[in-house]
Amino acid sequence: MLKGHCLCGAVRYETAALPAMETLCHCTMCRRAAGSPMVGWFTVPRESYRLVAGEPASYRSSEHATRTFCRTCGTALTFQSTRHPDEIDVTTCSLDNPEQLPPRDHTRASTRLSWIKLADGLPVYAEQRPKT
Ligand SMILES: [Zn+2]
Ligand SMILES: [Zn+2]
């Protein structure tokens, strides 16, 4: 069971699913949404993501995407796309223990900030991870 919460603790969630697609996203929208040079995400089936406490706020961050965040402290929590309605992406660092889910790669690196120097040896993809 993976559990997570926002900074102020008002929102708590859990998921019993096996996570997939752990990544560090360098896209400009993730960066701005989190105020961070890159954002760690993992993906689980939509129905496995369960709110345990609180009710996050949400907004349309693009034509196909909805993001949620804590309405009190602003912690970025999830990303959902109408292109993948059965999936939900969750911010890795909202987990109680982000050490549980290290990233497997870097994605959207075509917009990586020039002052971010990658030295972790992980695959770097200009856009999305290639389909396997
Ligand atoms: Zn909060
Ligand atoms: Zn992104």
Explain this structure.
With 132 residues, this protein is mostly beta strands. It has a single domain (2-111), classed as Metal Binding Protein, Guanine Nucleotide Exchange Factor, Chain A. Helices cover 5% and strands 39% of the residues. The protein has 1 helix and 10 strands. It has a 7-stranded mixed β-sheet with strand order 6-7-8-9-4-3-10. It has a 3-stranded antiparallel β-sheet with strand order 1-2-5, with no helix packed on it. A hairpin with a 6-residue loop joins strand 1 (2-5) and strand 2 (12-15). The longest helix is centred in the N-terminal third of the chain and has 7 residues, at 28-34. It is globular, with a radius of gyration of 14 Å. Bound molecules: zinc ion (2 copies). One zinc ion binds at residues 25, 27, 29-30, 108.
Low-confidence stretches: none
User: Could you estimate the helical fraction of the residues in percent?
Assistant: under 10%
The tally of domains stands at: 1
The CA-CA distance between the termini, in Å, is 26 Å
Kindly provide the name of the CATH class. Answer: Mainly Beta
SS class? mainly beta
Q: What would you say the CATH architecture is? A: Beta Complex
CATH topology: Metal Binding Protein, Guanine Nucleotide Exchange Factor, Chain A
Q: Quick one: how many beta strands? A: 10
Helical run tally? 1
Strand content: 35-45%
Which short descriptors sum up this protein?
Metal Binding Protein, Guanine Nucleotide Exchange Factor, Chain A, 132 residues, binds zinc ion, 3-stranded antiparallel sheet, 10 strands, mainly beta, 7-stranded mixed sheet
